[in-house]
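Box 3.1. Reading complex inputs
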Amino acid sequence: MAPPTETLTAERILEATEEVLRRHGPAKATVVDVARALGVSHGSVYRHFRTKAALREAVTKRWLDRTSEKLAVIVTADGTPGERLRAWLAALFETKRHKAGDDPELFATYTVLTEENGTAVGEHIADLTAQLTRIIADGAGSGTFPVPDPAAAARAVFQATGRFHDPCYAREWKAPGVDEEFTAVVDLLVRGLSSPSR
Amino acid sequence: MAPPTETLTAERILEATEEVLRRHGPAKATVVDVARALGVSHGSVYRHFRTKAALREAVTKRWLDRTSEKLAVIVTADGTPGERLRAWLAALFETKRHKAGDDPELFATYTVLTEENGTAVGEHIADLTAQLTRIIADGAGSGTFPVPDPAAAARAVFQATGRFHDPCYAREWKAPGVDEEFTAVVDLLVRGLSSPSR
DNA sequence: CAGCTGACAGATTTCAATATCTGTCATTCC
DNA sequence: GGAATGACAGATATTGAAATCTGTCAGCTG
């Protein structure tokens, strides 16, 4: 099916793995399937990834990184810290909601993968909170967000908005009124960050 | 095993059901088990609950209501709205964390039950946000919390603190530093509620 | 010789036969 | 007569034997 003449690279294996996951789901996607899709023996896959778990972790990381990269643009964009904070949170919500809504099966698949890969998720969350920290630190510098510890504030904001980005709430993202709820939470948080009484 | 001479009541059945759930877990707890524990035939259980699902829902509701009742006390307690809000949120966290930590298996069991019983959970959440609304409305009346819509603010606060009461985060409640994270989120929210700039 | 293959052992999954459970109801018991 | 029983049909769960998969490695191939 895939051209078997190209050299076998980790990237090509990851590509094929994602395709196999999309087709078969997380429970039935096997290394043999991946090898078959690439027209090679499964032994060759093990040359690039020591175990099936490592392969799944790599493909998970790849998926999470795509989100991080998308959001990174907003961190350094124009606008006040307040605008960027709102834009960043809205983009995070929108991205996740889109992924969950467009291809629910693939999203469910990756949700399973993230559950079995605490490390990759931890790093992803660290990435995202680092981005948030930069925005809030900008606001701390300019006096918009008079917070003593931007990193702690970023963690708090990230956790408080979990309902709008954590996969465990995915099924509620299509309910009517979520957008109002999202706005209400973000407003409350921005107001909290902006409050000078510290 | 249980005295078979007492009259069979819905409450006794619920009691026995909780015990069977504790022993066997959500997957292997059967109506026959419950009947056996009560020393009656399973047909008798069906006289009080139309289906197994109804029985499980009733026992779930009972469990959730125990939490609601505990928290209701704080709503009408002494203290400023700010103090009561913090106390209420802390009690909610503490109660859940205790349940999860003391008897992890029973907690896991009830987590499964709540997942299959959207309705009971919805009502429970409605109960809790109503309690929160009363506290915030008090604050709105006294000027402590100058919010235009206490009910909306209550929903936002409840959702923003999900990480500290939603069972899907239970495994993180024993991590070091959660208390600081809880405090950070609550501080941010209280500051947001207290901010006069509306 | 670097990369790929395919046979292999042990672990895991599938599948179909078997057992148990759910929900009903005619009958029994007090 | 109201409450409980237990046999029953269809649905669901368990089990163990057979099939498949994971991870290794000695040897093949270009």
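In summary: Chain A touches chain B at residues 152-153, 155-157, 159-163, 166, 168-169, 180-181, 184-185, 187-195, 197 (CB under 8 Å).
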